[in-house]
Amino acid sequence: MNPQSPKAHPNDRMAIPVIVGLSIAVPIAVALLFLLPESWKLQWGSANVRSLPFFHAVLNGSTAVLLAVGFGMIKTKNVALHRLANVGAFLLSAVFLVSYVISHLSNPDAHFGGEGWIRPLYFFILISHILLSVPVLPLAMLSIYRAWNNQIAAHKALVKWTFPIWMYVAVTGVLVYVFMAPYYPVA
Questions:
Q1: 90 burial via Cβ count (<10 Å: 0-12, 13-18, 19+)
Q2: Is residue 23 within 8 Å of residue 80, measured between CB atoms?
Q3: For residue 58, how many other CB atoms are within 10 A of its CB?
Q4: What is the CA angle 108-25-150, rounded to 5?
Q5: Which of 122, 135, 147, 162 pairs with 173 at a CA distance of 20 to 30 A?
Q6: What single DSSP character describes residue 111?
Q7: 43-88: pLDDT as tens digits
Q8: Are the C-beta atoms of 40 and 108 separated by less than 8 Å?
Q9: Any alpha helices (H) in 41-151, and if so which ranges?
Q10: In the chain, what are the helix, strand and coil shares in percent, each to the nearest 5?
């Protein structure tokens, strides 16, 4: 092991492969959703899943708030609330991911219909949101894992990247919903 690198934790042999596996499998699974033909979409009986995009915006906005609270709590050295806020943000992101998959398995695809200057703005936000959402999962899992195992130096080094990327993805998730709201099919 490199003397400059952080000391390995005994749980690394199990946790790191799980983090890497999820970090590869989840983006691939989500990407495959976009290749799903409309005729394969699931029906949920009388359940209305058309309101899920709004729910996703609420989850993303709440995640951003919890990330900001976590940031504020660590600046005031309130580690317990920092931890609670960030674990809460991670749990909301996990709920988002499950709900997003259900939404894309169930709802017809919606397409942005805006024109003029708003169109390139929307696509810049959407594309950057999608591209940056890919590293959020491994960064968040690894940051939380390092903190949980009291590897604070490694945790701090990771969150310099994790926090701004995760915050950007959460906020732009809300913005994508705001842009797309007029184009979602009504129930």
A1: buried
A2: no
A3: 14
A4: 125
A5: 147
A6: -
A7: 765 566 668 899 999 999 999 999 999 999 999 999 999 999 999 9
A8: no
A9: 52-75, 79-106, 118-148
A10: 75, 0, 25
